[in-house]
Amino acid sequence: MINVNSKITSVTVYKSKAQITRTAEITLPQGNHSLLFDNLPVEIENNSLQAQGKGDAVLCDIKLKSISFRDFPDAELQALNVEKTKLLDSITEVKNQIARLENEKNLVKKIEEKLTHSDQKVSEMDFDVEKWNSVIEFSLKKMEIFDSEIFEAQKNLRNLDSSLSFLNEKINSLGKPKSKTQNQAIIEVEMKNEGSLMLEISYLVRNASWFPVYDLRVSTETKTLTLHYNAMIQQQTGESWENIALKLSTAPIHIGGQPPELAPWYLSSQVISTRSESFRKGKLSAMTNQMFVKEESLEEDESCEEDKCLSDIVVPNAEVKSGSTSVLFIISQTQTILSHNEPQKISILIKDFPISFRYSAVPKLSPYAYLKMKVKNESEFPLLAGETNVFLNSHFISHSKMNLVAPNEEFWAFLGIDEGIKVEYKEIKKFQKLEGFIGKKRKEFFEYLIILKNLKKTEEEIVIWDQIPISQHQDIIVELLEPKYKEETAFLKKNEHQFLEWLFKVKPNDEIRIPFRFSVEFPQEMYIYGL
Question: The whole model's pTM is what?
Fold first, then answer.
């Protein structure tokens, strides 16, 4: 068995997995050989291991093998144990120092006792005051020095004991050696002649993913959008990807050597009410919260063979290969993604787009006009659904979301309120009439006035939204009185939810007054909910 040194050279990250490619070069003699790729991550998907190579050889077999082993103390633990040994030596040294000082202190005490408590009688002639004072002074100074040095040594000992306790906690936190599992790839090759062999193995791993994020930087002066299209990549596969060629794919992953089998397809009956769902989707308040509006959505991505259904398109920041239902982004520079599960931002595209502005207002619900922009995706890049950070003239506006936008597709984005457009909603009057002699009916009238004022120095395009009630009973008749509506025009539209949409171009300092009236007719004995 020959152990092969390999290196990760490229990675393709999918929505929830990644395909790793390792390469190795080795010189082999003629004959059969077993080549071992060791220390592969435990997160490898079963049946995903593949191999190919270049050289005068035949690939005979490839298999994935899992092995268990004891995870012995690593370098960090060994360093901590070395530090612990040094601390223990220092503690022993300080303890010995304290013992020596105590012995010297006791020796001075014994000398003092011998001189001051002698059994022999001391004559007055032998008693010399200056000598005795010298002895006492010497003894006191010595005792003071010993006490100070012992105190400092004991303080040092306490600090060393504290450091030792902290170090023991760190060592214990690392735990005892544990059993671990890792994968190995074993490749059987037959060398026809002695020579060099270039090998490449690839495998799928779990715990890797990516998702798009956007910075939308809008300039009202130049009427441009600078779009920063980024990918957030995170992985915890057990191996770091250092200086690798990186690709990002939207295709789902299917592994297996044969197609899946069909199961019986049964139908059963069930009554389903769709009224509440359609009403929820048609709520007028959703208009002010909507970030991106598109006429159509693209179907979900499907897998395809990259070499057959993907075409190359050169772009400034990255390369994109677009299939019928999947996209592959090829990042232009090598990248390093560590295995710590922290999101890392990678730039896909930075591009300027021309934009046009329009204001949108729902006076019934909000007294503000909301600025929004219209953008056409003039790049070859599909803008995948993802989170956005919106900036207007270098000021942060909001976080929001982007729906899927295909190349050459238009979308709208809201940019917050603009108090340069004033919107006022007035209730003029509300009254009712009784009609008919037999089977009397009640008819209620509602009259409102919407006032628009453009305080800006430029002509602005403004869309106003309102609504009339939707009858859900044959005896309830709702009639729009003003504005008169026969068919959709560029000025006035009405949809299936009975939302009214006015479009105005308001000149600087102009004011537009929009009368709005409708009636609701119903039997007198009927009580109406929601009116």
Answer: 0.61
